[in-house]
Structures are given as C-alpha cells and as structure tokens.
Specification:
Layout lengths: L3 E4 L2 E9 L14 H29 L2 H14 L2 H14 L3 H17 L4 H22 L13 E5 L4 H5 L6 E6 L7 H9 L3 E3 L13 E5 L4 E4 L3 H22 L15 E6 L5 H6 L5 E5 L13 H14 L4 E5 L26 H7 L1 H14 L4 E6 L5 H20 L9 E6 L2 H5 L1 H4 L5 E4 L1 H9 L17 H16 L3 E4 L10 H7 L3 E4 L4 H9 L3 H11 L5 H11 L2
Parallel strand pairs: 2-3, 3-4, 4-5, 8-9, 8-15, 9-10, 10-11, 11-12, 12-13, 13-14, 14-15
Antiparallel strand pairs: 1-5, 2-6, 6-7
Helix pairs in contact: 1-2, 1-5, 2-5, 3-4, 4-5, 10-12, 11-12, 12-13, 18-20
C-alpha cells in the first residue's frame, strides 16, 4: 500500500488501532438552559486543565514551536464569541448543550476547511480538536491517552489530532499511519519534530489491519506493508540501519560550511512564518533566513498589527539570527490569503488579481507601517527586504520610492535605522524572469519563488486536484527561466537566491548549483541534507549537467536524466 510519506524513517512493529468513537448527538428539548450552560462552563475548565498539561508535555518533548499549538487551543477555549454562540443557541432554542456545541463547531470547521489557504485550513483542525475534547468531557467519554503505553506500537488511525500527537511517548510510539492528512498537517509536522516515522493519506488502511498485526513502513517513500514476509522485514531492518547511520552523519555537519567539492561556498537558509520558528532554524544550523513570511503577523486577529507589534516581531527574528542575514518579505496577502477584518474584492482569478505588492501600492498606509517597523528593526541585525509579486519595473520603482519616503520620515523624526539594508524582489512571474536583466540593475538581490513561478509558467493551479499533476518542478521551461534569472543577476553583480520548495529538492539541488545559485532557502529540517549533497558534488561537473537538462524537451526527460547521471 502507498500513502504520503510525512516523516522520514523506517518503522517495524505491531499495530495499535486508535478507534474513532462514534458519538450520536441527539437534539433534546431542555427545561433549564442555565443548567446546560453551567455544564459547558465546567467542561471548558476541565479542557483548559488538560490542554495546559499537553502544552507542558509538548514543550518538554518537542519545543516551543509545537507547544504553541496548544496556546492556540487555549485561545479557542477562551473565545467569548465562539462560546456565546453556543450559549445563545441553548437559550434561544431550549436545546441540549452538546447539540448546540456541535452545530456551532460544525459551522466554523466547514468554513475554515473550505478556505483555499492551507494555514487557515489548519485552523479547522484546531477547532475540531478542541471542541471534540469538550464534547467528550460533556458526554463523559474517555479521551485517548498515548502517554502510558507498555510496549512499542505503531498507531494506525483515521486521523490524529495535535493532542494525540503531543501525548505520544516517542519511546513507545515508533510510528503512525493515518487514512487522511497531508505533509503539512499538524500531526505530520509534529511527527517530523519528534522524529517519529509517519505515513498519512493512506485511504483504506484501517480495513486492512487489526490490533497486533505486524506492519512495516517507509516514512519517506510512503510504502506500507501489513503482515510482511520475512524478506521484507529483513530488507526494512537493513534500510533502517542505513537510515539511522545517515541521520547521525548529518548531525555531524552542524557547524560545518556549505562548500562544494571544488570549493564553491553557498548559503543554506531557512524559511519561517513566525518568530516561533527560529528554534528549528537554529537547531538545523541555517546560515540565515531566506524567507520570513510576514503575512502570518496579519492573520488570526481582529485588526491590522500596529507598527510597534511588527517592530517587536522583526527585532526578535533579527536578534535571534545574531548577525546572519534575514530576508523579510513584505506583506503578501490576497489571492488565497485573506484577512477577516479587511474587505477584499471577490475576483474571478484571485491568484492573478489584487494581492501582494499590488495591494500594498494601493493601500500605501498599510505598506508604510510595515516598512517603518522593518527599518526601525534594521539596527538589530542584518536585514534584507524583498517585495513579492512584482510584475513590472514601474511597480518596483514605486515600491522603492515609498521605501525612500519612509527612510526620510524616520530621519526627520530622529529614529535610527541601518543604511546597509539590501532591497530585493521575488522572481515568481515569468515576465520578471524574462526581464531579469533589467530588474537586476534596480535591486540588490533576487529570490526566486518557484511555487508561483511554476504555477504561472505552466498555467496550472496547484490547488486544482484535476490538473495538479501538470504542476511539475522538473518542467524544462521553469529550469530555463531559473538559469536565465541567475545569469542576468550575476551579470549585474547581484546575488540570486531561491525560497520556493525547489530549493530543498534533493534531485534539483545539484542542477541549481550548476546554474550558479548563491542562496538556497528551505524548510529548516532539509538544511543538513542539502549541505550533505552540496559537499559531495562539484559545481564544475554540475554545470555540464545543468547545460544538458535545459535542452531536454519534457519534465520526465529531465527527471530521468538526473536519476541516471547524478548520484
């Protein structure tokens, strides 16, 4: 069976099925709404105590970033608006509180689950997790606890909540397989942090196993074997031994430079969404931050963040990197990322619409507030600012003119800022890649955003499941645009980085080195593996391969060439 590899590693063990307890919630007429509301208040208090324990457990076993998930859960428990809707329903309809809670939670779960933005869809999982907990307390149902297992197990479940994952003892839970979920779901992220192998999105696995069955899986490839033959078990044991050795070797690369066999040094940086992500960046020995997505500062709140709030967030990241470069992307909302408190137009094609720098150049006040916060923070580290979604020279020049206005204002106000802040732009639209020779004369650096560049180059909506197979990082047109951008940047003496997912693709890292890419920014967990790849290849040799792949006609040909010629 094959699912989605969510957390690498080989797991060999016995199955423990996490059964979903099906609960029938029946609507009942009640006489005393206040008694129902009191039950809800008491259940929320019990849930709060349970979540506090999970927060401490996550803090101890995984770190601050993962523990923050439970702070978000605490905010839901304390959310007066959410629970006043439940109480209003109980009082106005004279119904039982569990029924009212289900109605309100289903509404919010559906609303968030149907949003295009992945981050917002994760909020649906948070609401489901915490309201499910409160519901079980109301109904007196025992909550699954993985903290006191007596033997090693591999958990198989329909789905796992963050609470389930946080309560796992990694000495006993040696892996998990779920029927639903993706690589970016909370449980997948937490599995990678705990370094527990995991496969998700394996539809039908529950019908194939029972408690105590033997199971073997590869959390990288997503391959799962139930009750495997001895040959498969022996092969998995050998692979596990090799994998464990490889992980130990990767940890020995911490503190080492990212230099190719022929002495070419590149920068391996991390992508982050919030200051809380710094821990992973530091633990994995990033040489900087290549993408700080500031839009998360604007989401999950009721109004725009103030200049001071932004200043504190940027300062924390700059100080946390202790002088290493930090590339901060200016606000990139619109498209699939909307703010609940800001009216945005309904558009036929939001990805081609009112978003990112287009919105900032229209709402200059919002843009200036962010730039002021950035320049104020610039004295606390090595700041680089980049603009997203630039499609024309005119847009770039307008953005740069606003930067100069902001610097002039700060100067007149006597507020210090650094004079060495580099100004760059993302290359994520084919027009900017084609005109990169012109753009290179206007900025200090380029950062290639491959996620959108693939989408716009191939005219494929990556969220559309019917055509997502056409979204392909090996497409020769994409590789030609990347090569052209790097060459044009270097001709003008500027450095060129990449912050899209391609930067961390083990198959494409050698090709990018051959193109001459200067900075690779990726998920922090991929950094040491990328360093290992770079150290074992020569840029001169990769140049030859890079020249050949851009002359191939199809993505399949490119992939095949890399598989056969670059080891």
């Amino acid at each position: 069976m094959k699912g989605i590899g969510a957390s690498p590693g080989i797991a060999i063990g016995r199955v423990l099925i996490k059964n979903e307890q099906k609960v029938e919630i029946v609507k009942k007429a009640i006489d005393n709404p206040q008694d129902e509301i009191k039950k809800l208040t008491e259940a929320r208090e019990i849930a709060k105590q349970q979540v506090k324990k999970l927060h401490q457990l996550a803090l101890k076993n995984m770190g601050e970033e993962e523990a923050n998930i439970f702070e978000a859960h605490m905010m839901i428990i304390d959310d007066p608006e959410f629970f006043s809707q439940v109480e209003d329903k109980v009082s106005s309809d004279n119904v039982n509180v569990d029924w009212a809670l289900k109605q309100v939670s289903d509404f919010f779960i559906d609303m968030f689950a149907n949003m295009d933005n992945e981050y917002m869809r994760e909020r649906a999982a948070d609401i489901k997790d915490i309201t499910g907990r409160i519901m079980k307390i109301l109904l007196g149902i025992e909550i699954t606890d993985f903290t006191n297992l007596e033997e090693e197990v591999i958990i198989v479940a329909r789905d796992l909540t963050p609470s389930d994952t946080a309560s796992m003892d990694k000495n006993k839970v040696i892996g998990f397989v779920t029927e639903i979920g993706g690589r970016t779901s909370h449980s997948a992220i937490m599995a990678r942090t705990l370094e527990i192998p995991a496969v998700v999105g394996l539809d039908g696995i529950l019908s194939q196993v029972k408690n105590g069955d033997s199971i073997v899986f590869d959390g990288d490839k997503g391959e799962v074997h139930v009750n495997p033959s001895q040959d498969i078990v022996d092969e998995a044991k050998a692979t596990k031994e090799e994998y464990d050795k490889f992980q130990k070797m990767l940890r020995e690369l911490v503190g080492k430079p990212s230099v190719s066999k022929d002495g070419v040094r590149v920068e391996l940086a991390g992508n982050i969404g919030t200051p809380n992500d710094l821990e992973g960046v530091i633990r994995n020995d990033a040489e900087g931050i290549g993408l700080y997505r500031t839009e998360f500062l604007y989401m999950d709140r009721e109004k725009l963040p103030t200049e001071d709030e932004q200043f504190e967030a940027y300062k924390a990241v700059l100080e946390g990197l202790n002088g290493k470069p930090v590339v901060i992307r200016t606000l990139d909302i619109g498209g699939d990322k909307k703010l609940s408190y800001m009216e945005m137009p309904e558009e036929m094609n939001p990805f081609l619409g009112y978003r990112a720098i287009r919105l900032c150049l229209d709402k200059v006040g919002i843009f200036k507030t962010q730039l002021r916060a950035l320049f104020r923070a610039s004295v606390h580290g090595n700041l680089r600012i980049m603009f997203p979604m630039i499609s024309s020279i005119e847009e770039l020049r307008k953005a740069k003119a606003i930067v100069e206005e902001v610097k002039d204002e700060l100067r007149k106000e006597g507020i210090k800022y650094s004079d060495s802040v580099q100004i760059g732009m993302m290359i994520e639209i084919p027009a900017t890649a084609i005109l990169s020779d012109m753009f290179a004369k206007e900025v200090d650096f380029f950062s290639i955003g491959t996620n959108d560049l693939i989408q716009y180059t191939t005219a494929v909506d990556r969220m559309n499941q019917k055509i997502s197979h056409l979204y392909n990082q090996f497409h020769p047109a994409l590789l030609r645009l990347i090569k052209m951008t790097i060459e044009n940047g270097h001709k003008e003496g500027i450095w060129v980085g990449m912050c899209g997912e391609v930067a961390g693709d083990p198959k494409l890292i050698p090709i990018l080195l051959g193109f001459g890419l200067d900075e690779f920014s990726m998920s922090p967990i991929s950094i040491l593996k990328a360093r290992h790849i770079i150290k074992n290849i020569s840029k001169e040799e990769m140049k030859e391969h890079a020249q050949k792949v851009v002359m191939l006609p199809t993505a399949e040909d490119v992939k095949k060439y890399i598989d056969e010629n670059i080891k």
